[in-house]
Amino acid sequence: MFRWMIRSMNDLKLRTKLILSCIVVVFVPVLMVGLFLTSELRQMSLDNALEQTAANVERVKKRTAEVINVSYDISYRMSNDSRLEGIAGSQYETVYDVVKAYKEYPDIKEYLRLYNEISNIRLYIDNKTLLNNWEFIQPSGSIVRSHWYQTAINSSGLIAWNYIEDERDRKNYLSLIRRIDFPNQHNTGVLVINVNGSMLSSILNQETFETMLVDKDNNIVAANRAGRVGKTLADIQFDPNVIDQQNGIFQAVVGGKSSQIQIEPLIPESSLNGIRIVSVFSIDSITKDANEVIILALTVISISLVVAFGLIYGFSMLLSKRMLRLSKQITKVATGNLDTALEIDGKDEIGQLSRQFNAMVVSINELIDEVQESNRQKVQIQSRQNEIKFKMMASQINPHFLFNALESIRMKAHLKGEKEISNVVRLLGKMMRKNLEAGNGTVQLRNEIDMVRCYLDIQKFRYEDRLSYELLIDPTAEKEPILPLIIQPLVENAVIHGLENREEGGLVRVKAELREDMIHVEVIDNGEGMPREKLEQLNRTFREQEDGEREGNRIGLHNVHMRLKLLYGADYGLEIWSERGIGTRVQFTIPIGGDTSHVI
């Protein structure tokens, strides 16, 4: 290992060795010490913050428990109050009797007067003879159907703490909710006592860190930050991984900031549920002072290191001046300037390198000349191969079609003996002549469309009413040059693979138009179409030339696709859309004028 390190150092430049020495001797130790001190100082700040947060949370828990225990004590008294049972369960004949009964029970008003910890007391009781006075309330249908009311009815007297709306002022309060049974009257009511939210908030306002009281549904019932009360934890962008946690210390993102979160549950006696005390402090705010000290120390250290680096760099420049001259000449050669020669005196290693460099430049010039001549010959060979391949691909389509056309004529003559066959023969002769005349150049679009029309007329003779076709050709595009035998194979494919096996036949539509400086051609049929798997296989053969040449069923499509790419470049070729039972659309777009600048 040590020998390998020595060899590696010997391979480095002198200036690099000096800089690395500075880094190893100075930078690395300073960096290690700085990272250690930074980590320790930051951790100390976080630990202190956690201790303070734990003390704050415990203090908030104790004072909040004192507040909500007042509601618990009042609910306990009222649940065992025989006078309340008499009022709630009696059947009154007149309004006067109800008012008299209310006056004889001033306890609710006394509780509100004596205890600032509560803001409202109301009893929901199903007694049609009572009057609603915001203390005794006949529950509406929506109240009865509410979750908190049903929970209280089914809770066997246990207390529930919910953040619900008060019907008087339409505001939400943290409320004690419990069922009160009146066994002598065979009746049941639901008691609701609102906790004073302002008092809860005043408790939290004495805390330094952001602190919230949250109910079981993640509603914020009190907070020491403005705009929090009434929202949910989700509304303030609380981390979803922590939002439902009931107890513990977590690191998470709150409001887009990395924060430390401490959650402490508060579940009063005889309660189904309780509330959570959530304390949040931003890690950046806690470590701010420590970071400032760290930044100051790092600034001083950095300045010292920069000065040291500058001194070492200047010393290395003095030692490596001759090597820099050699480096500049190498840079010139790297940018392609081979007409250069290096003159460095001396018989040491650097002088020897300069002489070897000059010899290398001469050798490179000779090699470049040889490579250029080789490339010129290679381009000529490739051009001839493409020309041969071009002609071979153009000739692959004719035999299959001629065989089908002649067979159709033979069968038609055999079965009907009609004179119209002579017209078909004429069309066939015309097509054969155009096929023979097709060379390696281009033809006008109207000539290619004339070939397509001949082919479709022959096939219409074969299929009669089963085949219909439309030629929608833009007159302004008819004189534009296009590859020969580039549209007819697409039409042939549409007839043979799309319509031949359909008893009801179909329609083939050929469209050609100018779009800005491009010729756009589409061949559309409403035949059988292709399933998704077969269409994907066909597109794959377009991308893989060898597979495409072995694909006999679609040789016409692959032929056209490859010819377009050979003549117009890799960005051009066929685009195919097909769906089973709907049909197929094959299209391509080529530049006007038959641009062949992409041909190798």
Care to describe what's here?
- A five-stranded mixed beta sheet has the order 2-1-5-4-3, with helices on both faces.
- The protein starts with a helix and ends in a 9-residue tail after the last strand.
- Helices cover 52% and strands 19% of the residues.
- The protein is flat, with a radius of gyration of 46 Å.
- It has 600 residues and is an alpha+beta fold.
- 26% of the residues are buried.
- Strand 4 and strand 5 form a beta hairpin.
- It is built from 19 helices and 17 strands.
- The C terminus is likely disordered.
- Helix 12 crosses helix 19, helix 13 packs antiparallel against helix 14 and helix 15 runs parallel beside helix 16.
Task: Furnish the topology, listing elements before pairings.
Blueprint: H1 2-10, H2 14-79, H3 82-89, H4 95-103, H5 107-114, E1 118-125, E2 136-137, H6 141-145, H7 147-153, E3 160-165, E4 172-182, E5 187-195, H8 197-205, E6 210-214, E7 220-223, E8 248-254, E9 257-266, E10 275-282, H9 283-286, H10 288-319, H11 321-334, H12 349-394, H13 398-415, H14 421-437, E11 443-444, H15 445-463, E12 467-473, E13 481-482, H16 488-499, E14 506-515, E15 518-525, H17 532-543, H18 545-550, H19 555-568, E16 575-579, E17 583-591
Parallel strand pairs: 1-2, 12-14
Antiparallel strand pairs: 1-5, 3-4, 4-5, 6-7, 6-10, 8-9, 9-10, 11-13, 14-15, 15-17, 16-17
Helix pairs in contact: 2-8, 2-10, 11-12, 12-19, 13-14, 14-15, 15-16
